[in-house]
Amino acid sequence: MAESSFDVHVVREFDAPIERVWAAWTTPSDLREWWGPDGFTCPRAEADVRPGGRILVTMRAPDDWGGFEQHSAWEIVELEAPRLLRYVFRFTDAAGAPITPADAGIPADGIPERGEHEVVLSEVGDERTRLDMTEHGYTTVDARDMSQAGLEQCLDKMAALVDRRPLGSGR
Protein backbone atom coordinates (compact mmCIF):
# COMPACT_ATOMS: atom_id res chain seq x y z
CA MET A 1 0.00 0.00 0.00
CA ALA A 2 1.42 3.36 -0.96
CA GLU A 3 1.65 5.94 1.77
CA SER A 4 -0.23 9.19 1.24
CA SER A 5 -0.25 12.40 3.20
CA PHE A 6 -4.01 11.91 3.35
CA ASP A 7 -3.99 8.59 5.23
CA VAL A 8 -5.67 8.36 8.62
CA HIS A 9 -3.34 6.91 11.23
CA VAL A 10 -4.47 6.35 14.83
CA VAL A 11 -2.65 4.72 17.72
CA ARG A 12 -4.56 3.88 20.90
CA GLU A 13 -4.04 1.80 24.01
CA PHE A 14 -6.91 -0.05 25.66
CA ASP A 15 -7.15 -1.32 29.24
CA ALA A 16 -8.07 -4.79 28.03
CA PRO A 17 -6.26 -7.94 26.86
CA ILE A 18 -5.63 -8.37 23.14
CA GLU A 19 -8.31 -11.09 22.81
CA ARG A 20 -10.94 -8.70 24.18
CA VAL A 21 -10.02 -5.92 21.75
CA TRP A 22 -9.95 -8.43 18.87
CA ALA A 23 -13.45 -9.58 19.83
CA ALA A 24 -14.66 -5.98 19.71
CA TRP A 25 -13.56 -5.85 16.05
CA THR A 26 -14.95 -9.25 15.03
CA THR A 27 -18.05 -10.00 17.13
CA PRO A 28 -21.40 -8.65 15.88
CA SER A 29 -22.79 -7.89 19.35
CA ASP A 30 -19.66 -5.86 20.15
CA LEU A 31 -19.61 -4.07 16.80
CA ARG A 32 -23.21 -2.96 17.38
CA GLU A 33 -22.08 -1.20 20.56
CA TRP A 34 -19.22 0.88 19.18
CA TRP A 35 -19.53 1.31 15.41
CA GLY A 36 -20.55 4.84 14.49
CA PRO A 37 -19.53 8.26 15.80
CA ASP A 38 -21.11 9.97 18.80
CA GLY A 39 -24.91 9.90 18.69
CA PHE A 40 -25.02 7.21 16.00
CA THR A 41 -26.09 3.62 16.64
CA CYS A 42 -25.31 0.37 14.84
CA PRO A 43 -28.53 -1.63 14.43
CA ARG A 44 -26.90 -4.29 12.23
CA ALA A 45 -23.57 -6.07 12.29
CA GLU A 46 -22.82 -9.38 10.61
CA ALA A 47 -19.38 -10.98 10.59
CA ASP A 48 -17.88 -13.72 8.41
CA VAL A 49 -14.40 -13.40 9.90
CA ARG A 50 -12.00 -15.17 7.55
CA PRO A 51 -9.84 -14.18 4.61
CA GLY A 52 -12.31 -13.55 1.79
CA GLY A 53 -15.15 -13.03 4.27
CA ARG A 54 -16.67 -9.73 5.18
CA ILE A 55 -18.14 -7.75 8.00
CA LEU A 56 -21.34 -5.84 7.24
CA VAL A 57 -22.37 -2.93 9.43
CA THR A 58 -25.15 -0.37 9.39
CA MET A 59 -24.92 2.86 11.31
CA ARG A 60 -27.98 4.97 12.02
CA ALA A 61 -27.84 8.73 12.49
CA PRO A 62 -29.60 10.36 15.43
CA ASP A 63 -33.12 11.68 14.81
CA ASP A 64 -31.93 15.30 14.76
CA TRP A 65 -29.71 14.32 11.80
CA GLY A 66 -32.67 12.72 10.03
CA GLY A 67 -32.19 9.16 11.28
CA PHE A 68 -30.66 8.02 7.98
CA GLU A 69 -28.88 4.67 7.74
CA GLN A 70 -25.49 4.13 6.13
CA HIS A 71 -24.35 0.62 5.24
CA SER A 72 -20.82 -0.62 4.66
CA ALA A 73 -18.86 -3.80 4.07
CA TRP A 74 -15.37 -4.62 5.28
CA GLU A 75 -14.01 -7.15 2.78
CA ILE A 76 -11.35 -9.11 4.67
CA VAL A 77 -8.06 -9.36 2.78
CA GLU A 78 -5.78 -10.69 5.52
CA LEU A 79 -6.41 -12.00 9.00
CA GLU A 80 -4.06 -13.14 11.76
CA ALA A 81 -6.19 -13.42 14.90
CA PRO A 82 -5.82 -11.67 17.30
CA ARG A 83 -3.19 -9.36 15.80
CA LEU A 84 -4.00 -8.27 12.25
CA LEU A 85 -7.14 -7.38 10.33
CA ARG A 86 -6.67 -5.96 6.82
CA TYR A 87 -9.81 -5.15 4.91
CA VAL A 88 -11.23 -3.04 2.11
CA PHE A 89 -13.95 -0.67 3.29
CA ARG A 90 -16.82 -0.03 0.86
CA PHE A 91 -20.12 1.73 1.20
CA THR A 92 -23.03 -0.54 0.29
CA ASP A 93 -26.77 -0.52 -0.08
CA ALA A 94 -28.91 -2.32 2.52
CA ALA A 95 -28.39 -5.64 0.70
CA GLY A 96 -24.59 -5.31 0.83
CA ALA A 97 -24.02 -4.38 -2.84
CA PRO A 98 -21.25 -1.76 -3.31
CA ILE A 99 -22.28 1.85 -4.00
CA THR A 100 -20.31 5.08 -4.36
CA PRO A 101 -19.68 7.35 -1.38
CA ALA A 102 -21.91 9.97 -3.03
CA ASP A 103 -24.74 7.43 -3.34
CA ALA A 104 -24.24 6.66 0.37
CA GLY A 105 -24.84 10.34 1.16
CA ILE A 106 -21.24 11.23 2.02
CA PRO A 107 -20.92 15.01 1.71
CA ALA A 108 -17.13 15.27 1.33
CA ASP A 109 -15.13 14.80 -1.84
CA GLY A 110 -12.02 12.71 -1.40
CA ILE A 111 -13.57 9.57 0.12
CA PRO A 112 -12.35 6.47 -1.75
CA GLU A 113 -14.79 3.94 -3.19
CA ARG A 114 -12.45 1.21 -1.90
CA GLY A 115 -10.51 2.20 1.20
CA GLU A 116 -7.75 -0.13 2.34
CA HIS A 117 -7.72 -0.35 6.15
CA GLU A 118 -5.29 -2.09 8.47
CA VAL A 119 -5.77 -2.83 12.17
CA VAL A 120 -2.70 -4.07 14.05
CA LEU A 121 -3.03 -5.12 17.70
CA SER A 122 -0.14 -5.79 20.06
CA GLU A 123 0.12 -6.64 23.73
CA VAL A 124 1.37 -4.01 26.14
CA GLY A 125 1.81 -5.99 29.33
CA ASP A 126 -0.75 -8.56 30.45
CA GLU A 127 -3.91 -6.49 30.38
CA ARG A 128 -3.34 -3.70 27.86
CA THR A 129 -3.52 -3.65 24.08
CA ARG A 130 -2.07 -1.21 21.58
CA LEU A 131 -4.07 -0.56 18.42
CA ASP A 132 -2.29 0.86 15.39
CA MET A 133 -4.79 1.59 12.62
CA THR A 134 -4.32 3.08 9.18
CA GLU A 135 -6.98 3.99 6.62
CA HIS A 136 -5.57 4.55 3.12
CA GLY A 137 -6.91 6.28 0.05
CA TYR A 138 -8.30 9.67 1.03
CA THR A 139 -7.61 12.28 -1.63
CA THR A 140 -8.31 15.46 0.34
CA VAL A 141 -7.39 16.77 3.76
CA ASP A 142 -11.08 17.42 4.55
CA ALA A 143 -12.04 13.81 3.79
CA ARG A 144 -9.16 12.50 5.90
CA ASP A 145 -10.01 14.79 8.80
CA MET A 146 -13.72 13.89 8.69
CA SER A 147 -12.90 10.18 8.73
CA GLN A 148 -10.36 10.55 11.52
CA ALA A 149 -12.83 12.48 13.70
CA GLY A 150 -15.44 9.74 13.25
CA LEU A 151 -12.91 6.97 13.87
CA GLU A 152 -11.69 8.63 17.08
CA GLN A 153 -15.28 8.78 18.35
CA CYS A 154 -15.83 5.11 17.45
CA LEU A 155 -12.66 4.12 19.29
CA ASP A 156 -13.78 6.10 22.36
CA LYS A 157 -16.94 3.96 22.35
CA MET A 158 -14.85 0.81 21.86
CA ALA A 159 -12.66 1.75 24.83
CA ALA A 160 -15.73 2.14 27.03
CA LEU A 161 -16.96 -1.28 25.85
CA VAL A 162 -13.78 -3.29 26.36
CA ASP A 163 -12.90 -1.57 29.63
CA ARG A 164 -16.24 -2.46 31.22
CA ARG A 165 -17.01 -5.95 29.93
CA PRO A 166 -14.57 -8.87 29.92
CA LEU A 167 -14.50 -11.28 26.99
CA GLY A 168 -17.25 -13.90 27.20
CA SER A 169 -19.27 -12.10 29.86
CA GLY A 170 -22.31 -11.54 27.64
CA ARG A 171 -24.88 -8.94 28.55
Automatic annotation (TrEMBL):
Protein name from the UniProt record: SRPBCC domain-containing protein
Q: Which superkingdom, per the lineage?
A: Bacteria
By its UniProt entry, which Pfam families does this protein fall under? AHSA1
Q: Where is the Activator of Hsp90 ATPase homologue 1/2-like C-terminal domain?
A: 15-162
Record's family? Belongs to the AHA1 family.
What organism is the protein native to? Agromyces mariniharenae
